[in-house]
Specification:
Strand content: 15-25%
Number of helices: 9
Low-confidence stretches: none
Strand order of the largest sheet: 6-7-8-3-9-10
Number of strands: 10
Oligomer: single chain
Structural class: alpha/beta
Largest sheet: 6 strands, mixed
Shape: globular
Distance between the termini: 29 Å
Order of helices and strands: EEEHEEHEHHHEHEHEEHH
Length: 261
Amino acid sequence: MSTQNMTETPMVEIKNVHKSFGDLKVLKGIDLTVDRGKIVSIIGSSGSGKSTLLRSVNHLEVIDEGTILLDGVQVNRPDMKGLAFERHINHIRQNMGMVFQHFNLFPHLSTLDNVTLAPRKLKGMDRKTARELGMEYLERVGLAAKAEVFPSHLSGGQKQRVAIARALAMQPKVMLFDEATSALDPELVEEVNLVMRSLAKEHMTMLIVTHEMAFARDVSDWAMFMDGGVVVEEGPPDKFFTNPDHERTRSFLKKHLDSNH
């Protein structure tokens, strides 16, 4: 996928990435280029390798082979050890916001403190600046009124919107969404999707693992179908979702597009 001036560095580059858990090969030579401001949806059945791929991008999973770059900087550095690598990966992660299926909010912190913790701890931001920034992002996801509320008093959709605000508060270069709506009740899914749609309008670079086919079709610049650790098919969404080349893609989409309506 390359839709831009060749002189501009892609935001994310994944080159020949392999990953195994014991004898199980989960990723078998994955390649993907994500240009800045573009949105890529990764779809596939459970166990296809899509979440492992996303977790590998910010080094939550350590790949066995291949290269991952963020804005031209290599994420995985087998040559780097100990403290030097820790500093390197912390710096990388400051530029990547990640939103998980299960919100991962700190239950003992208020909504606002959940959002401001990382900018204060990792970027050394003072409390006042961090709170102003935090309020701005809570406003952004429609939750400014819940700033002093604790996570136990929020709905699932609200928790996920706080998780998005928390990731955005680091002002990342790229956002990674790993099945951000799959733990939510159906009526709460759209409130999270609306926030993601607004990010798409602002040209935030995003990698989205999702089972929401209609949403992926609407927001993506590029879609990728994984099965058994390989990319079966990829392409622009108008072609990918309406006229895929491969039978495996067709049957997956038929099943999931039908069930989404």
